[in-house]
Amino acid sequence: MTNSGEYPQQQQSSAPVHQGGTQGGAYPPPPAFAPEEPPKPPKPPRRRAKGPLALLAAVAIAAAAVGGGTAYAFQELTGKDGTSSSATNTNVVPTSQKGTVSGVAEAVSPSIVEISAKSSSGEATGSGVIITGDGEIITNNHVISGASSVKVTTNDGKSYDAKVVGTDSKKDLALIKVEGASGLKAASLGNSDNVKIGDDVVAIGSPEGLTGTVTSGIISALDRDVTVSTDEDQGQQQQQGGGGWPFEYGGEQFNGDTGSSKTTYKAMQTDASLNPGNSGGALIDMNGNIIGINSAMYSPSSSQSGTGSSSGSVGLGFSIPINTVKADLDTLRAGSTD
């Protein structure tokens, strides 16, 4: 029997309740919506790269934006040496030997030659610098002046006939070219405007026929007014006599009489040992760049006339700045005989 207006009372079941069952209202009904997951902890902020990594990244980005100009920035910021495409800044000497005389000698010696010039007065020996792979060679005018034949011997002992392409007696320069040669090692021509007094230098040439002789010293002075003869036979005669190429400086004559036909040019002074036969050879900076062509050296003798026995170098040598040479190349290549 039920009470009026009331729901019948449910009797508690005596049946056992199984885990996970739904009988008897033992468990609350499931929620209408799944519970929200607890919020995840915030990610730690990304750390910006510091030090060399950030620096390299910045340089790489700049490189994409402005191109070749960043090569210099990379070198300056990272402190790493790079090889410049400009001959005036080239590091010819390997990094492991940079700044050493032996490194300069090893790198540049293949570009220096011995020159033998025969004339009616006899035979004289000088030096030269290879400037192209097919055999263009810069030397002094007085080395080949008046020569009927010219022979060149390279650092590896090979011998070539050579012809005179052009001469400039006023600058004491000449351009010759060997015949039948290719693949020669051309020297790197530097920038003599950057040379400073006190800079270390290396000289390579063939003094007294001693091919490939290496000496070293410093730049002693700049812009010396050196006066030399333009007489084509005088240099040949003086070299054979052992007195070296005659020149004037400061109103005094050295190595004999320069004669009446002469010219004056600006020269670099060096105390690197130079002797007869070094004429036309190279004066080199410590990166292996040619900064001058050795042209005059004082070789004191037992008499004032310079005809006695030579007593060797006293560390007073002069070199034509390489920028003077470069400015004259087109004229020499055109066959000048001035």
From TrEMBL:
SUPFAM superfamilies: Trypsin-like serine proteases
Pfam families associated with the record: Trypsin_2
Entry keyword set: Hydrolase, Membrane, Protease, Transmembrane, Transmembrane helix
Protein name: Trypsin-like peptidase domain-containing protein
Organism for this UniProt entry: Streptomyces rectiviolaceus
Polar residues: compositionally biased ranges: 1-16
Domain of life: Bacteria
Annotated family: Belongs to the peptidase S1C family.
Keyword Transmembrane assigned: yes
Keyword Transferase: no
Annotated spans, Disordered: 1-50, 226-263
Membrane-crossing segments per the record: 53-74
